[in-house]
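My main concern about presentation is that the manuscript never shows what a single data entry looks like. For the editor and my fellow referees, an illustration may be useful. For illustration, here is how one protein appears when written out as sequence plus structure tokens:

***
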Amino acid sequence: MLVRLFDRWSEWPAWARWTSGIGDIVPLGSVRAAWGERDFVAESRP
């Protein structure tokens, strides 16, 4: 299943592969950064 998914992804144009890669890295990096925090949702208080 993953091989077939990768094969279909590799047929995409280069710009779409770059965009999907960046689109995967940004949210995963955000989750990784917030993982150890007690209150991972930021609150702004005046």
Observations:
- The mean pLDDT is 84.
